């Protein structure tokens, strides 16, 4: 196989950007089809790119004109489409998050395991030079055993954003708010670097917007080794400058926006605490220079990696099977916050499904919507 023939399912938003990336930025791929439930949109996008268009994803997949699909529909449809595609012999690249619930994510991982198809998730932040450098430090044991974590991840969305579609910020259409939509990229990076917490004590609320789902979350975390952490996200705050800390026995990593700092301890804190004899002494620590690889955190780079994995077995940057960690994280926060109790991972699948169905039943839906279909102008191709 010289090129991977790709069909894009869902072209009402990011799907069009992915189709453009395949068409213009990925030499390992060939765009062969697009699909959207809205016939007018499917036809317009298909004609725009000069490819076949479909309104039924099953017809696209069954047509055998594609080797792989990029799934860019609203979240709820990711598992259904991905599982069908893998079972029909196609490779899958799913937009984030791979699913709304952990039980749905389980079905995707089972399908990938059974079919041995390449399964990838669009977490392009994993290819960001700073994240790659931080991961390398942690895997090399440079900060030692992790003792504490922190992630502050603010976003901003105007009410007009939420009013742009019937599905946005509803339990039935999206399955949550800031956690399921804006936050997954940094949640993935957080769990990729520090691991999935074991215990969550969360508070969630709708503080500013006129929506039925959360626009703010504050969470106390605990890990298997007893380390503590804290996580916060919102769509009520500007500017969007995130702050991440991972503190270990041998050092500390700080990522503040586009800056990475690494501090190395002269001796482990756990050792110094009991072996030093001076009342006021402290561990000596030095900031070390870190080489940041020149990597591009773009959608196109993830698509290239996905294609190379299919063609020549290249290691995936963002394996779909690891996409379940962010879903566990999100489900644990929502269940803990709305139920007012601590929640442990792995999240109880049946309990979460019951919770979500309860929230959907309580949903009042939207009465006024000013429909807008527009790709985020700040995204990196």
Description:
This protein is α/β, with parallel strands linked by helices. The chain has two domains: 4-125 and 297-320, NAD(P)-binding Rossmann-like Domain (Rossmann fold); 128-295 and 326-362, Dihydrodipicolinate Reductase, domain 2. Helix content is 35%, strand content 22%. It has 13 helices and 15 strands. The protein has helices at residues 14-24, 39-49, 57-62, 78-87, 102-115, 129-139, 159-162, 178-181, 184-194, 269-275, 299-312, 324-339, 349-362; strands spanning 4-9, 29-35, 52-54, 68-71, 91-94, 119-121, 146-154, 199-205, 216-222, 228-234, 243-248, 251-256, 259-265, 285-288, 343-344. The strands form two sheets. The protein has a nine-stranded mixed sheet with strand order 14-13-12-11-7-10-9-8-15. The chain has a six-stranded parallel sheet with strand order 3-2-1-4-5-6, with helices on both faces. Helix 2 links the parallel strand 2 (29-35) and strand 3. Helix 4 packs parallel to helix 5 (102-115) and helix 6 packs parallel to helix 9 (184-194). The radius of gyration is 22 Å and the shape is globular. The protein starts with a strand and ends in a 19-residue tail after the last helix. The mean pLDDT is 95.
């Amino acid at each position: 196989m010289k090129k991977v023939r790709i069909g894009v399912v869902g072209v009402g938003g990011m799907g069009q950007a992915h189709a453009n990336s395949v068409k213009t930025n990925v030499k390992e791929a060939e765009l062969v089809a697009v699909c959207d439930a809205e016939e007018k949109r499917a036809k317009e996008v298909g004609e725009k790119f000069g490819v076949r268009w479909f309104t039924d994803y099953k017809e696209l997949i069954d047509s055998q004109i594609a080797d792989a699909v990029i799934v860019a529909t609203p979240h709820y449809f990711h598992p259904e489409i991905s599982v069908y595609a893998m079972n029909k012999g196609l490779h899958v690249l799913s937009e984030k998050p791979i699913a709304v619930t952990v039980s749905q994510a389980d079905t995707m991982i089972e399908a990938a395991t059974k079919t041995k198809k390449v399964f990838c998730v669009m977490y392009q932040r994993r290819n960001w030079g700073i994240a790659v450098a931080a991961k390398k430090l942690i895997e090399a044991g440079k900060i030692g055993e992790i003792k504490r974590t922190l992630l502050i991840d603010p976003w901003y969305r105007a009410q007009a954003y939420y009013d742009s579609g019937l599905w946005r910020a509803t339990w039935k259409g999206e399955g949550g708010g800031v956690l399921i939509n804006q936050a997954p990229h940094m949640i993935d990076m957080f769990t990729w670097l520090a691991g999935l917490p074991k215990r969550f004590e969360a508070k969630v609320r709708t503080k500013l917007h006129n929506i039925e789902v959360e626009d703010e979350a504050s969470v106390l975390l605990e890990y298997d080794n007893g380390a503590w952490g804290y996580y916060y996200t919102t769509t009520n705050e500007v500017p969007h400058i995130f702050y991440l800390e991972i503190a270990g026995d041998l050092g500390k990593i700080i990522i503040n926006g586009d800056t990475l700092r690494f501090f190395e301890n002269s001796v482990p804190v756990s050792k110094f605490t009991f072996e030093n004899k001076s009342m006021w002494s402290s561990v000596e620590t030095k900031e070390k220079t870190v080489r940041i690889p020149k990597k591009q955190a773009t959608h196109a780079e993830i698509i290239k990696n996905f294609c190379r994995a299919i063609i020549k077995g290249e290691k995936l940057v963002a394996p779909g099977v690891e996409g379940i960690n962010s879903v566990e994280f999100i489900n644990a926060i929502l269940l803990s916050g709305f139920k007012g109790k601590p929640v442990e991972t792995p999240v109880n699948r049946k309990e979460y499904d019951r919770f979500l169905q309860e929230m959907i039943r309580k949903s009042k839906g939207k009465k006024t919507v000013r429909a807008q279909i527009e790709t985020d102008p700040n995204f990196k191709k």
